[in-house]
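User: Hi! I'm working on a homework problem where we have to compare a predicted structure to a textbook description. Could you give me the structure for the chain below?
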Amino acid sequence: MRYAVLLSVLLLLGAALIPDRGVSAEESLHIEDVTNDKGVKGLRATFQLNASREAIWDLLTDYDRFTETFTGIRSLEVISKNDQGARVRFKIKVAFLSFDYTLRRDYVRPYELLTWHRIDGDFRDLSGSWGILPGPAEGIQQVIYESFVDVGFMIPTALVRDGAASELEKTVARIRARLEGG
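Assistant: Happy to help. Predicted structure tokens:
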């Protein structure tokens, strides 16, 4: 049986089902299993941020400071970048495994939708998106993160998902801290 895991897992951004613990809307994190149109399994994380769309977009496209928020990345190289998107080569390490791949990150609707997919390197399939929608109140944005990864070999799903849940909570906390701290 072929197991699919998320880029978020491999970038230590993954997620697992996390019960609502009565946190405020701005701190909530909802995770669900999803499958893309190619049949690759993945996860969707939905959470809210107290920031402008512009500030969130800048954080997601600030490749000079990317590793401050998205840990687990050993290195990244921006191959090209323009108003329509970027080509970025990533080297990551997860446990004892190292991976190298290049993503095409498309700025589909700037300040609203950023998508990505693998164009070279490791993994059979790798894609995802960041969506930024108006939240329930002024200054709060609803963020929807989706990630789909077929690594091409079997990985114990339960082990990956347990570690991913904890790391996603930390990543969202780092995103919030960066947005508050500038």
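For your comparison, note the following. The chain has four helices and eight strands. The chain has one domain: 7-181. Good luck with the assignment!
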